[in-house]
Structure to design on (238 residues):
């Protein structure tokens, strides 16, 4: 082996040693980064905005992975955790799903039943009544045919708990169950949790009242309405 060949072999060996050194350095950097970042875990990001109080489903989220140490303790890592839950506020697209963004959907208590009625969107809800809200349900009745009859407004149920607020629905002509009721073009199905007697009152009002209206009750307000204040006629102000 001449001197030129020896120099070539030496350079080749040096190149291999440099490559091995660089590879070891890269592995060291990777181990250092993994040691600082830690293992990755699944997380979920919103695909689009979600309105408040809407029920959640898996199709509204996309799965991503993130270092576990970068996630907050409230981050949702399993979509089974949102089953039966609703958004507590407006959720923005691109946000990471957190457990404090959702709450359990209101459910029935012992002795209650669900009853849903259509409420005129322009007079009944105004976009402020949501699942979990407490409302007073008022119904107005036209005077009967007797000479002493008078139009009446009645508080038929106080403190009714709302289970669900449906989507705004366009009403077809004649869809209202009461011909005397003012013709409404849009309505919202509202589901309540009520006892048997209150459910009967609501069903009666939907069938025979000219209007059914909801009044939002302030949170924590447990004021009891006296029987004398549950019915109103215009004659009382004369």
């Amino acid at each position: 082996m001449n001197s030129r060949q020896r120099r070539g072999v030496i350079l080749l060996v040096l190149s291999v040693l440099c490559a091995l050194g660089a590879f070891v350095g890269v592995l060291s950097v990777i181990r250092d980064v993994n040691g600082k970042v830690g293992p990755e875990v699944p997380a979920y990001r919103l695909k689009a905005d979600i309105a408040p109080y809407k029920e959640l489903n898996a199709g509204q989220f996309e799965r991503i992975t993130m270092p576990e140490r970068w996630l907050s303790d409230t981050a949702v890592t399993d979509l089974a955790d949102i089953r039966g839950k609703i958004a507590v506020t407006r959720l923005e697209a691109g946000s990471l799903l957190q457990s404090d963004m959702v709450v359990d959907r209101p459910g029935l208590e012992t002795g209650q039943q669900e009853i849903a009625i259509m409420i005129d969107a322009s007079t009944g809800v105004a976009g402020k009544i949501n699942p979990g809200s407490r409302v007073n349900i008022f119904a107005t009745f036209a005077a009967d045919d007797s000479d002493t009859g008078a139009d009446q407004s009645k508080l038929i149920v106080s403190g009714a708990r709302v289970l669900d607020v449906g989507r705004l629905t366009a009403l077809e002509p004649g869809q209202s169950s009461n011909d005397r009721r003012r013709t409404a073009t849009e309505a919202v199905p509202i589901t309540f949790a009520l006892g048997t007697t209150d459910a009967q009152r609501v069903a009666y009002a939907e069938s025979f009242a000219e209007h059914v209206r909801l009044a939002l009750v302030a949170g924590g307000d447990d004021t009891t309405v006296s029987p004398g204040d549950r019915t109103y006629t215009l004659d009382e102000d004369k």
